Amino acid sequence: MASAPHVDPPRRLVRALGADSPWLASLPRLLAGSLARWELTAERVVAPGGRGSLVVLVRRADGTPAALKLRADGAAAEAAALARWDGHGAVRLLDAAPRDGALLLERLHAEVSLRSLPEAKANLEAASALRRLWVPPAPTGAEHPFTTVAEHTARAVDRIREHVPGEAGALVDEALEARSALLDDAPEELLLHGDFRQGAVLSADPGRAHWLVVGPDPLVGERAYDLARLVRDRLHDLGATSGASSLTRRRVRKLADSLEVDRERLRAWSLYRAVESASRHFAAGARADGEMLVEFAGWL
């Protein structure tokens, strides 16, 4: 095996996992093993990157470009989702070693996401990209390996109650009541991206769809849950405008109608997901971001 190369993880990743993270300490070994396994030559680390993974631009033995992604956790689920999509609307999975958290992916243009477009155009392209991902999680009659929205959100209930400040108690109650009602009346079970936003849609080379989705944390559930994260995209820009509340409700209507999703279900999931995300920010000490998300939830 090749000697462990020097790795400078992006600051965003270090902040998210903590400088003393055992996984960060293991990165040189994991990277060296993946480079050797697939006969890759490393070019550079993608920055700012994600909060739970390292992406390295590489060349394969035949000289073709690719991207090596090392995930702290969740590699098996991402690999399964990408294999299910098989390049239709999403980055193509070339190979995987889930036990090492390693995914070998086709290379996209990491520096060009939908966030480079004006908001209206970005949302149109986002809706088109997302529509292609909503497929049954497995062939008819087969089992799927994915966590459901019900299971995923159940893990957050205690954290929401513990970490969202008491003055937002009415919003917390509404969010959790909405979650229960939505799950009791779930209309469909489709494969979802799980963390869909404009920044997760990257430009591709000619010969592929112009925009392809990356970075899924896949779940199985209804479309409105997936679309709800997109509702609050560019949140700080939204908060800086006058009439943010009415603009938010208009965004819900436009996105729901463009993808034939029930408006009320999208509004309710958007409320829940904002409060849940706020709880994570409060728990991590990012109070300003948590308060911004609570304010957004109030606009809904």
Automatic annotation (TrEMBL):
Locate the coiled-coil region(s) and give their ranges.
Answer: none
Q: Which InterPro entries match?
A: Kinase-like_dom_sf (IPR011009), NH2Glyco/OHUrea_AB-resist_kin (IPR006748)
Top-rank taxon: Bacteria
Tell me yes or no: is Transferase among this UniProt entry's keywords.
Answer: yes
Output the Pfam families linked to this UniProt entry: APH_6_hur
Q: Does the keyword Transmembrane helix apply?
A: no
UniProt entry keywords in alphabetical sequence? Kinase, Transferase
> GO:BP terms for this protein?
secondary metabolic process
* Molecular function as annotated in GO: kinase activity; phosphotransferase activity, alcohol group as acceptor
Spell out the SUPFAM superfamilies in the cross-references: Protein kinase-like (PK-like)
Protein name, please? Kinase
